Amino acid sequence: RARYLEWAAANRRAVREQCGRAVGYVHLADMEERGYEDFCRGFLVDARSDRDALIIDVRGNEGGSVSDLVLQRLCLPRLGHEAPAHGQCTQLPEHAAPPALVLLIDEHTSSDAEVVAYYLASEGRATLVGARTWGGVFAMGVTELADGTEVFHPECRMHLIKDGWAIENVGVSPHVCAPWPPSGEPCDVQLRAAAHTAAALAREVAAAHASDAESSQLEPLPRRQQHWSVRPQTAAIDASSKQNEAEQHEACE
User: Fold this and answer.
1) Strand positions, DSSP E, 108-186
2) How far apart are CA 59 and CA 133, in angstroms?
3) What is the DSSP letter of 114?
4) Chain segment 222-253, per-residue pLDDT in tens
5) Which of 115, 134, 184, 245 is the most exposed place for a label (fewest CB within 10 A)?
6) Which residues on adjacent β-strands are paired with residue 102?
7) Alpha carbon distance 104, 65 (integer Å)
8) Is 2-135+171-216 in CATH node 3.90.226.10?
């Protein structure tokens, strides 16, 4: 567990060094309770309003049953910003995903993680980087052989409205292919490719935001007065009250 957390933290630092603060990184280890908890913690840290792109790493994710919850977070778009007279702007909704998403996949991404990859790709919500996924989505039975080898075989399969039987025994293909070289590399070539793609998308998002800001010509809210002096209305009210008292006094006499 400690080694995994250190590995994920090292990946986050590598992305920060390559892309700066505009790109965040979060790893989704599995589609179970602990994996989703870690994902939510990382998402809250690396999906802030100053992020224009986010890398979601699902390499080695063997699946589970929380794809609906993951997709709800990743598909919640930003609607705008709350701009107070004082302080920093806050994005709305507060925990919305960055505009650009990059999903990092490999041949060990399987089951429920493939559902996330397919949905984000088919809906145009994310750019997939890495290698084609395993191709085993639903209800896999496991048979153990005499020598300890485990054979996985599907007991049912998923039919897609758009693509039919496109994932089972096929997998989800990336938009940007980045396989591991046969000789091996000291650095993570797939993460580097994902960071390069995310940085390019972040620049596009930043340029679009700058263009929208110029066209909208929004002016900042006027600053509120910090110290209040005697208001003319208050003085007028006091004068009117004194006049009424004088008239009442004369009437009594």
Assistant:
1) 126-130, 140-144, 150-154, 176-177
2) 9
3) H
4) 555 555 554 555 555 556 666 666 666 666 65
5) 184
6) 55, 127
7) 19
8) yes
